[in-house]
Amino acid sequence: MALPFSLVTILLLPLDNSERSAKLISSKLADKAPVFTIQTYADLDNDGYAEEISHFSNIINQCAVKIITQKGVLLGQWNFNGTLTSSNSNLLIFDYNNNGGKEVFTIYNRADSVFMGGLDPTNDSAKIFEDIFIDKISCANDIIHFSTFMRAYDMDDNGFKEVIIALSAGYSEQPRRFIIWDPIKNTTSRSASVGIKFGSFTIEDIDKDGTPEIIPVLTSNENIDKGSGIQLNDWNRWLAIYDHELEPEFDPLDMGVGNGSVYPVLIRQDERPLLFIKDYNKKTENRFRFYTFDWNSKTLSPWEHDLSFNGDVSLLRFQQADGGRLLIIDQDGVIHILNTDELKLVQSIDVGCKISGAMILNINNDSLPEVVFKNNNNNQLCIFSNDFKDHAHIQLPDTAGMVRASYRDLGKSERHLIVQAGHQIYEYEYEPVPYYRIYISVIYLLVYLGYVLSVWLIIFVQKKYFKNRYEREKLLAELKLKSIRNQMDPHFTFNAVNAIASAVFKEDKQNAYTYFAKFSNLIRSTMLYSDRMTRMLDDELEFTLKYLEIEKFRFREKFEYEITVDDEVDLNMEVPRMIVQAFAESAISNGLMHKTKNGLLVIKVYNEKDHLKIEFTDNGVGIERSKELNKEKAFKAVKIMEEFITVFNEFNKPKIKYTMHDVIIDGQVSGTKADIEIPFDVRYTLIR
Question: What is the SS3 string spanning 511-565?
Fold first, then answer.
């Protein structure tokens, strides 16, 4: 029984089931804070240790690059004669001349011209390239507004990499094109300018013919004049792939009218190249549509699926141990994992938060990367392992602003996660949790043992409860029989019948009939309540009154009785059955019975504070003398009642109490007084 409960509890436990954690190593301000600074880390000299590269605007608003080694040694600061904008703050780092070291390239603008510059980190005396003209951007709205993305790739297969730039003018709308700069030949080539904007892009040899293709994300904003004659007007969405000479590989495909973007990702199915395409159209209710584009036949086909999306969607190509994957990330909190061979759903993971900035990053420096994204619900950076079984999270400051994740190599085998949150730089070690398996095993064992102990305790308590309940029910049954026997005492019954018969013999028929009716009602009441432990106070007093009338009939002039009930007493109050009659009977049989005449029993019922009080006062022979005269039968009814009271009190915090003592007058025993206190809030439901 404990096992299934343990399994359910373990599944529901809010444990951090990750075998890895992100341990904070250091925290510092960005190098030029509060100036807008992007810090990048790259191993520039191939010694296994990454240098820190700061990209910022210097004090005279020039584009600047500063490099510091892992040991804190300043390699230099290079200033370029132009302005750095936030939309062009990405650096390109690669070995352009195959000398074994990496150079750093940046984009900047001066007036209406866009330039590229480069530096050699081993030589701080000069820049290796400066003012490489990229293109001219017209001024609009009194500003120069444009964006760039850069990649390095050997486009002409000569053994040296070229720089490929996607340039997109903003407010001025033109130019929007690709540029290739050959650093060896120092030559520049450009594609025709188009109406759509270029986003990020990848470069791959799609058909493996030795020449690469450029696969861009294309965005349409509906800004270009429809009558301008510019190719690929941005009132429509387009799929376009460029060859190594910046010519379209095929006539661009018109994906339809509407503001949005076309995002292609290259996958391979049995070495057959296929583009998986996300078509985002802001103007339609179903904003996201997916297609596959067969590279060999150049045909576009809708991708049929049963997935639903609540937020924006992003695509990421991902490699797992058993093959290629495509991640479709619903930014409302679900990651759908497809295998690339068949484009079938492998798994959908609900991460339980809104996602932004998802990226693939190899943090632990093995052969398989991790998935990193920002949790917008709790302002955290989340890291999922390659198999999505483990995850770690990093709490970001509330004023984080821009969040960038990267890594820094610290030798051939050590790598740290770098998180830039606004102006703050955090360095983490993404490491295995010490003794994780022992810790989890102990937790699971404790959960199981906890349930074993709980089940044992439940069974033990249950057995004890049922045993006590059986004993209590047995006791109650015996008490009920005792009370019935006591009320139907043969001596009392025989004497009552004799008294009635005597009245008949004396031809006192009216009295005989009256008391016979009362006697029968008494017997009827006894039988009627034989299965009850309680009754209303009014019924109990009525029963006691009938009993006293019959006893008075039996003993004639031997005793009198008085019963007074205060007006404030609630006659509908529930009281233990027989509680009044038992003490009245005790007063007669133990005290007044031994007097020849002038006996008196006074019963008073009234409220006192938080309880009902019942007083019994008789002028009989007293407690000790009664014990001598009655021996084992003395106070038999009270003893039975005492057992009843004990059972009632077992289930109540407010207790029913009674006391008995002799009445002393002038130093002589002149009778007995009994007091009963019944709390108003006593409960009988558990034993009724």
Answer: HHHHHHHHHHHHHHHHHHCCCCCEEEHHHHHHHHHHHHHHHHHHHHHHEEEEEEE
Burial (Cβ within 10 Å: 0-12, 13-18, ≥19) of residue 594: middle
Side-chain-side CA neighbours of residue 255 (13 Å):
31
φ, ψ of residue 418 to 5 degrees: the values are: -115, 125
Please write down the long-range contacts of 416-419, taking CB distance under 8 Å and 24 or more positions apart: 416/25, 417/22, 417/361, 417/363, 417/383, 418/39, 418/41, 419/381, 419/394
Amino acid at 196: I
* Residue 671 and residue 590 in one domain: yes
Amino acid (1-letter code) at residue 138: S
Q: Assess whether 408 and 554 both reside in one domain.
A: no
> Between 280 and 447, where is the model more confident?
280
Domain that holds residue 245: 138-304
Residue 276 lies in a domain: yes
| Residues present in the chain in total | 688
pLDDT of 35 above 90: no
Which residues contact residue 261 at a Cβ distance below 8 angstroms, ignoring those fewer than 6 apart?
A: 199, 217, 218, 219, 220, 237, 280
Contact 605, 564 (CB under 8 A): yes
Q: Is the peptide bond before 34 cis (omega within 30 degrees of 0)?
A: yes
Q: How many helices (H) and strands (E) does the chain have?
A: 8, 39
Residues 277 and 316 in one domain: no
User: Is 356's pLDDT higher than 80?
Assistant: yes
Distance separating alpha carbons of residues 639 and 641, to the nearest angstrom? 5
Spatial separation of the C-alpha atoms in residues 278 and 344, rounded to whole Å? 16
In angstroms, rounded to a whole number, what is the distance separating the alpha carbons of residues 278 and 263? 5
Residue 96 CB-half CA count within 13 A = 23
Q: Residue-wise over 65-94: b if at least 16 C-beta within 10 A, else e?
A: bbbbbbeeeebebbbbebebbeebbbebbb
Secondary structure class of 352 (helix, strand, coil):
coil
Q: Are residues 97 and 149 in the same domain?
A: no
Angle CA 86–141–87, to nearest 5 = 10
What's the alpha-carbon Rg for the chain, to the nearest Å?
49
pLDDT at 687: 46
Q: For residue 171, is pLDDT > 60?
A: yes
Please give the structure tokens belonging to residue 54: 């700061």
The two most distant CA atoms of the chain are separated, in Å, by 150
Q: How many domains does the chain have?
A: 5
Q: Given its phi and psi angles, is residue 584 left (phi above 0), alpha (psi -120 to 50 degrees) or beta? A: alpha
At 117, the amino acid letter reads G
**pLDDT tens string 482-535:** 554 444 444 455 455 555 665 565 556 676 667 677 777 777 766 666 667 788
> Within this chain, do residues 267 and 318 fall inside the same structural domain, yes or no?
no
Distance of alpha carbon 274 from alpha carbon 425, whole angstroms: 40
* Cα separations in angstroms, 425 against 13, 54, 223, 375: 33, 12, 38, 18
Residues 51 and 182 in one domain: no
The residue among 172 and 192 whose pLDDT is bigger is 192
